[in-house]
Amino acid sequence: MKELRISSVSTTAKKEYKKWEKGQNRNFLQQQFQTERPNQVWVSDITVFKFHDKYYYLCVIIDLFSRKVISYRISHKSSTQLLTKTFKQAYADRQPKAELMFHSDRGTQYMSHAFVHLLQDFGVEQSFSRTARPHDNAVSEAFFSIFKKEELYRRHYTSEADLMRGIAHFIVFYNTERPHSTLQYKTPEQAEQDYWLKEKESSRT
Questions:
Q1: Tens-digit pLDDT profile for residues 147-175
Q2: CATH number for the domain whose boundaries are 25-204
Q3: Domains of the chain: which residue ranges?
Q4: pTM over 0.90
Q5: pLDDT > 70? residue 12
Q6: How far apart are CA 65 and CA 41, in angstroms?
């Protein structure tokens, strides 16, 4: 383009993106994995696995306070649409009333123009892991490790429908029955119920 003296219509677009890339996509979470309330920080990631010669992409969003999987979707494509649908479902279900941070790695879906502006429209602060630092998103990584060890690699699914049922059942089990050491061996559901009960009691006094 330089040799032909051709320039884009918006000459500042690349500069603005570079400025955003270097300046705004910082790691605001800084591995602070303990929060004071639900819907304060959500973390997310996408993993891929293979079943019957087909690839499946699982996107999850986890509330950092309780480690609860608050939304998930499965697709044959790792697309921005997969992420945006997962986020919109989480937001509709949780309806956060206070400031919210969304943390992820620097995958193309999370840095896409569509998703960045979606978070801005919802007033959500976006945080990114540093490059090649998986520990910056350790909670999401830990969930996928547990999911694969305790469910995906231990089950023999007979069909795609059986696979979907297995994943759905595991996530319910993870949220409601599996205790977490970081939650004083409560389940994610118990941790949230205890929080809201305390909030209700404190509002009465």
A1: 999 999 999 999 999 999 999 999 999 99
A2: 3.30.420.10
A3: 25-204
A4: no
A5: no
A6: 7
